[in-house]
Structure formats: structure tokens, C-alpha cells
Design goal:
By secondary structure, the chain is mostly helical. The chain folds into two domains: 1-42, no CATH class; 43-185, no CATH class. It is 47% helix and 5% strand. It is built from seven helices and four strands; from the N terminus they run αββββαααααα. Helix 3 (97-124) crosses helix 7, helix 5 (137-143) runs antiparallel to helix 6 (153-167) and helix 6 crosses helix 7 (173-185). The longest helix has 28 residues, at 97-124.
Length: 188
Amino acid sequence: MPISRYPFVAADFRNLPPTCHPCNSLYKIDKDVLLDNLGHRRPCSDPYVGPIFRVALEGSTYGNGKTSRGYRLPKWQISLVGESIQQAETWDALYQIKSRYEVTLDTDFLSWVKHYALWFVREFGREKTADEVSSMLPRYIENVVQEGFADRAFLKSEVFCFLNRSCHDGAVGNEVKEWLCDQVKFAT
């Protein structure tokens, strides 16, 4: 809670969770965490006890998002999944988590796919079928995805789970597999 609005919480350690500078000074700023814009009480989470939320990309669609470097990115559908959706909505309202993750996904998606393509070439070679390229996504998620990406590994993992689901989608599966195969063939 902002000390400017609730001075009595200045000495309460539960009110002093560690946050990064952008979270505290650009997003939360002086927002009232107790009340929403309509004056209704918000359900809040204890930053030390939880609940814990995870990010999910179910509902995202391949090839329907923004264009970057000549590629049509996925249209991201970002959800916070956990015990209490209302508490997750409070965190999102204060810190704009979903919109910030969308920027991260749009910015990093192609480089993450390139990392996958380079890993695939090192492990299996370049001349593989689209089915062979896509079949290694679960192995990559389980064994490699956190390599060098620890601070965003949870998000990167969700991206590759999304790609794996998309490969099995009757409407776009073959297109996604062929696109991944092309990424492998032309990876440098």
C-alpha cells in the first residue's frame, strides 16, 4: 500500500515486499491497492505467502499478431493462473503484467525460436522433416529452455508449449511445423 495514502503501514514489513524499480516507480507508483477505480475493495495477495500464479498462453493464436522482421507473430492471450483469479487481476491492474509480458513476447519470440533452431541443428542436423523438427519441442522444453534464460524461462517455456500445441492444431499445425522446419534449415 502506498505510504503516502496509508502512513501507518510504513513500519509493516508485509507492506514492504521487494520490487524492482520499474514495478514500484513506473507501474504501482501511488495507486491504491485496496480499492479499485470504482471504490470497491480489491482482493490482494500477501507477497510472502501467496498465492503463487503462473503465466499461461492458452488461447494464443499462431500468425495473428503483430509483424516483426517480416514474420507474423502469434496473437498472445496471456492469463495468470492460480488459486484466486481476483487476486491475479489485482496484481495485473497494479503492475500491468499482461501488457508487459506481451511486449516481452513480441520482442523475444523470434530470437527464442532462433535459439531452438540452432540447438536443433547442433543436436540433429539441418536436413530433417517438419515432423522431426516439431517432435523435439517437448525435449527442448524439458532439457534446454532454461539455459541462459533463467529470468524469463517460465515465459519462454510457455511459448514453446504454445508452439507444441500449435503443431498439433488441425487448422494451423502443418503451417507451424513447416515454419519451424524453415527456421532450422536457415538457422545461422
